[in-house]
Design the sequence.
């Protein structure tokens, strides 16, 4: 088991280095200049000297290899530098936004797990009944509906319904307050985005749970368990579901990692000051240091999530643990 | 009460036509203003408003150019002079903020002496003196090595700024010009504390320390900014609010929903007509709308270095094909544009009148005649059936609307253009590198200052952010003569000469429809008056809540 964990931990480093090289090159291939965007966005005139001064201030006048070396050194020393746009430490920029993205991702994951696994299982067990059909319809609709669009619709629905009921439209708060400061205000802000994102998340997981359950239920060992006279509940919970969950866990993990940095539009729709919105801002402003740090963050989250999934695999399936 | 002394120097220069224009501006402002002048302001309450952008890069107003900066920190700062907060639509009169009276210039219009109010304090308790005002203006006009000043080119007429004593500030100019006072009223010229600037000229990038109507209380990175009433504010009775919260929100739908649900009372930049109509339908009398011509307009720039746009006949033909007079009413229903105008803001006394405009290419009243001439010019230039790419910025309002509209207009003379929409960074890069055929740009300014605002039309040798690629000393000469002319009638004549040369003679750049600023606000918001720019009148001092 120890060797299994170490192999996976060590495989993280080549992935990180590969991602670092890729993001560094790709960012510099995008046409544009952060200094010109900053100096010119207000419409005024600025001299070439101002642009050069800005380049010098941001270190953009240094040789490209030196810039790359600084970036890589920053990763290893955990000093990611300052945002080129705001001048604030990248760590601060990210740390400010990370809690809300994590909270939304966690809430969405909980919603997905609570909905997807029971409904996916029921759908498989009641294959081709009206119940299965209903669950499949809901799941396919969830996959086909973009979360941000659902988000826009849900806000409009909340506004219209509250206006129809009370005469005064209501919508969730638009400025984030941490959970520990004001739980009710926090949850009233995060619940709607979590539900809209969680619906798609649940839909994908539901489909996967259903198909893997159908597959497992046809396995020989399930037939053997039945012939031994085991209770149906025990067959499903102890033998079928545990094995069927392996690919579902993978999917849940990957989706969770995606939610941390991938809610680009949804965060804007709900005015959430999260990592996704920061990502858009960083790319739009051509803020190299911040974009690079965010990409590395997402890579680390994906890698760690995969590591956790691998460990869960080992826990769920002893064959992996003892291989 | 507020010092409301008018700039006598300007007033005496302006003639009957100016007075008429001023009257017009006042009428527009009065018509647009909600509420009654007799209403007594109520004290208290917190104003929550939306800032329609992401957070500004820094808090240094002298360095930044985005309006998000003004919407975020203007309430914390004083300025030397400003537009009338009760009537910011008046573009020709300036009022004291920190000074006691507007000065009459001496030394043939080359010296302006301001007396500074006494007893004003910064938030940290340090008294504000003339030394702070001078230090601020020196940082703006003559930035030290390593310090960036975004608008230093506006003040090339200034020779030096001095403080002979603690309450006097003297601006000495190299030459007299009417461009000086409007430039001095720049809302970005926020007064900083000298001691702080002396210790660290970059301190204001990350911190706030002002003497304005509100004290800075907190900033949630990228999310919101909060301020509370400055109890010792020097304009008696103001501010009326106990405080404010500004919430950053680049997404328009969020801002509209927030106003609808009363999560926010308003935003200060401007919403498109459809969004405002929607709010009016949903909220009825709970929403009030103010509108104004906006000192921003799109302009279309052909690349004069690239064939066939190096041929004035082709440039004129493309301009002649566009029917702005009929396009404006239709487009104004869906986009933030409204008024047909030349290179000068339509509300300004220096702007062309309709008969003057109608003489210029692109503004002829008879569009069929105009398009016939366009076809003839294209044929003569051997550019019939011209095909090219129109570069545009990835901004909905109104860039993409204007781009789509003019492509349709060009199709009516057999020109086929396709639109390429790119984000701001690549858009700038393409323009700076001359890597485009024709581009949709904008000329957006704050305080209406036609002499500065029309610099955009100068060749790159004189104005670095001109991307037309033309070299023309004759144009620069007309401009320089106009800049230093202080007689209004002569200056106006020179402006017509400059405008005719740029648009009609050379067709270097084509001004397209001035923008229309539409501000919906919850009806309980009182006191704030719309102006021709989203940069001005943002200190929130005269806003009060009727609830």
Sequence:
């Amino acid at each position: 088991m120890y060797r299994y964990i170490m192999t996976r931990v060590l495989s993280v480093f080549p992935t990180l280095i590969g991602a670092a090289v890729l993001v560094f090159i790709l960012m510099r291939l995008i046409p544009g200049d952060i200094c010109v965007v900053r100096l010119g966005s207000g419409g005024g005139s600025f001299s070439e000297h101002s642009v050069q001064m800005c380049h010098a201030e941001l270190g953009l006048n240094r040789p490209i290899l030196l810039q790359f070396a600084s970036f890589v050194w920053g990763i290893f020393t955990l000093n990611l530098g300052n945002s080129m746009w705001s001048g604030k430490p990248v760590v601060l920029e990210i740390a400010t936004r990370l809690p809300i993205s994590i909270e939304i991702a966690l809430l969405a994951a909980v919603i997905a797990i609570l909905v997807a696994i029971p409904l996916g299982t029921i759908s498989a067990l009641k294959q081709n009944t009206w119940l299965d059909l209903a669950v499949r319809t809901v799941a396919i609709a969830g996959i086909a509906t973009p979360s941000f669009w659902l988000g826009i619709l849900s806000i409009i629905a909340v506004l219209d319904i509250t206006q129809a009921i009370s005469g005064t439209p209501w919508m969730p708060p638009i400025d984030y307050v941490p959970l520990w400061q004001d739980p009710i205000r926090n949850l009233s802000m995060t619940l709607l985005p979590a539900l809209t994102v969680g619906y798609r998340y649940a839909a994908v997981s539901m489909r996967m749970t259903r198909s893997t359950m159908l597959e497992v239920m046809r396995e020989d060992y399930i037939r053997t368990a039945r012939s031994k006279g085991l209770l149906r509940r025990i067959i499903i919970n102890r033998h079928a579901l545990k094995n069927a969950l392996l690919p579902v866990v993978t999917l849940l993990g990957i989706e969770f990692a995606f939610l941390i940095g991938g809610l680009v539009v949804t965060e804007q729709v709900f005015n959430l000051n999260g990592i996704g919105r920061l990502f858009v801002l960083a790319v739009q402003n051509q803020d190299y240091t911040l974009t690079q740090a965010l990409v590395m963050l997402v890579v680390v989250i994906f890698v760690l999530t995969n590591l956790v999934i691998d460990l869960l695999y080992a826990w769920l399936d002893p064959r992996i643990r003892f291989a | 009460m507020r010092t409301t002394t008018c700039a006598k120097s300007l007033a005496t220069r302006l003639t009957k036509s100016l007075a008429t224009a001023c009257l017009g501006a006042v009428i527009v402002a009065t018509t647009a203003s909600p509420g009654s002048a007799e209403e007594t302001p109520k004290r208290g309450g917190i104003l929550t408003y939306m800032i329609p952008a992401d957070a500004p890069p820094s808090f240094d107003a002298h360095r930044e150019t985005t309006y998000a900066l003004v919407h975020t920190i203007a309430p914390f700062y004083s300025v030397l002079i400003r537009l009338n907060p009760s009537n910011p639509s008046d573009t020709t009169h300036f009022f004291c903020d920190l000074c006691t009276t507007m000065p009459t210039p001496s030394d043939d219009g080359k010296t302006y002496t301001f007396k500074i109010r006494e007893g004003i304090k910064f938030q940290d308790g340090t008294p504000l003196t003339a030394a702070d005002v001078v230090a601020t203006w020196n940082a703006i006009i003559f930035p030290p090595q390593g310090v960036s000043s975004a608008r230093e080119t506006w003040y090339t007429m200034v020779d030096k700024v001095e403080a002979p004593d603690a309450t006097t500030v003297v601006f000495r100019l190299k030459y007299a010009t009417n461009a000086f006072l409007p430039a001095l009223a720049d809302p970005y010229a926020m007064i900083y504390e000298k001691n702080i600037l002396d210790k660290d000229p970059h301190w204001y990038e990350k911190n706030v320390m002002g003497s304005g109507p509100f004290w800075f209380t907190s900033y949630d990175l990228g999310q919101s900014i909060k301020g509370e009433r400055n109890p010792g504010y020097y304009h008696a009775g103001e501010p009326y609010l106990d405080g404010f919260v500004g919430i950053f929100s680049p997404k328009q739908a969020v801002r509209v929903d927030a106003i609808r649900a009363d999560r926010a009372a308003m935003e200060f930049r401007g919403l498109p007509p459809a969004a405002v109509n929607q709010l009016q339908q949903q909220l009825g009398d709970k929403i009030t709308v103010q509108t104004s011509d906006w000192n921003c307009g799109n302009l279309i720039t052909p690349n004069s270095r690239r064939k066939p746009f190096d041929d004035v006949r082709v440039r004129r033909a493309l301009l002649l094909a566009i029917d702005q007079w009929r396009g404006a009413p239709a487009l104004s229903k869906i986009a933030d544009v409204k008024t047909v105008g030349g290179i000068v803001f339509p509300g300004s006394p220096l702007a062309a009148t309709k008969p003057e405009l109608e003489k210029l290419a692109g503004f002829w009243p008879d569009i069929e005649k105009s398009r016939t001439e366009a076809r003839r010019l294209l044929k003569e230039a051997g550019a019939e059936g011209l095909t090219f790419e129109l570069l545009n910025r990835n901004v909905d309002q109104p860039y993409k609307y204007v781009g789509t509209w003019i492509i349709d207009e060009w199709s009516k003379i057999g020109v086929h253009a396709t639109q390429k929409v790119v984000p701001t960074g690549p858009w700038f890069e393409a323009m700076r590198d001359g890597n485009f055929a024709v581009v949709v740009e904008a000329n957006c300014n704050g305080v209406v200052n036609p002499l500065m605002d029309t610099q955009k039309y100068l060749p790159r040798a004189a104005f670095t952010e001109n991307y037309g690629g033309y070299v023309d000393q004759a144009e620069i000469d007309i401009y320089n003569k106009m800049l230093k002319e202080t007689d209004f009638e002569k200056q106006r004549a020179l402006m017509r000469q400059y405008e005719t040369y740029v648009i009609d003679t050379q067709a270097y750049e084509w001004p397209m429809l001035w923008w229309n600023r539409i501000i919906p606000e919850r009806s309980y918001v009182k006191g704030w008056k719309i102006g021709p720019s989203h940069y001005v009148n943002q200190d929130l001092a005269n806003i009060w809540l009727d609830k």
Chain B touches chain A through 56 residues (CB under 8 Å).
